Amino acid sequence: MRAGGCEGDGATPASPAQPPPAQVPPLHGPPLQVPLAQDFFARSALDVARDLIGCTFLFGGAGGRIVETEAYRQDDPCCHGYRGKTARNAALFGPPGRLYVYFTYGMHFCANTVCEEEGVAAGVLLRALEPDHDAEAMSARRGVTEPRLIASGPARLAQALGIAREQNGLPVWEPPLAILPRPGGAPRPRIVSTARIGVRGGDQKPWRFVAADSRFLSRPLPRGARG
Questions:
Q1: CATH class of residue range 38-210
Q2: Is pTM, for the whole model, over 0.70?
Q3: Does 2 have pLDDT greater than 60?
Q4: Rounded (to 5) percent helix, strand, coil in the chain
């Protein structure tokens, strides 16, 4: 969400002059669970960022369990909407439940879910997921075989799923996108909050949320982090 909101996580650079990544084929048949509805996202970005941990993010049927997020709000200097609405950040201002995709460092795309009421710039950066749906296709897009390197970072995540400018503004509750709730009966993940990664000016807001026991995080938990 911040200017330079992705610190570069090992994704293969994407050039603006090149054609966008190939689209993932559309979903075939209904998901096993009903996707989260739009009103799930019409809440504080902090609450949404925490509650997304353990949910499943899919694009065209590929994706996996979300294990790391970061929250950004309009009153936060690290947020893309801090200085107001522009053509580039318009999707961040709502409606909630849309995808906000931005291009950073001239190399990477990153994906966010828009939150809070329409007209307010707030969202959640999807930082990492555990690739457990069509992992082979995700691995091929990334050009890696080690599961922990497929989507452990916001740029890797977007590249693995084939998310680019074309997906900016799409509703996350409709195909080809879906965010499924945590499976019923599954144990709630142990969630830890830390300072966000790569923000400017030494900002230490504890607005990064992670599944503490996951091995698919973009960065290890800092020493002494508590639930």
A1: alpha beta
A2: yes
A3: no
A4: 15, 25, 60
DSSP 78-136: TSTTTT---TTTGGGGSSTTBEEEEEETTTEEEEEEE-SSTTS-EEEEEEEEEEEESHH
Tokens of residue 51, six digits: 């509650």
End-to-end CA distance of the chain: 24
Element at 49 (helix H, strand E) = helix 45-51
Residue of 145, 189, 193, 148 lying closest to 47 (CA atoms):
193
Query: Does a cis peptide bond (omega within 30 degrees of 0) precede residue 77?
Result: no
Please compute, for residue 72, the number of CA atoms within 13 A of its CA located in the half-sphere on the CB side. 28
H or E stretch at 46: helix 45-51
Does 95 have pLDDT greater than 60?
A: yes
Query: Could you report the per-residue pLDDT of 167-187, keeping only the tens digit for each?
Result: 999 999 999 999 999 988 788
For the chain, the structural domain boundaries read: 38-210
Report whether 80 contacts 62 (CB < 8 A). no
Where residue 25 falls among pLDDT bands split at 50, 70, 90?
Answer: very low
CB contact burial 128-138 (16+ within 10 A = b; e otherwise): bbbbebbbebb
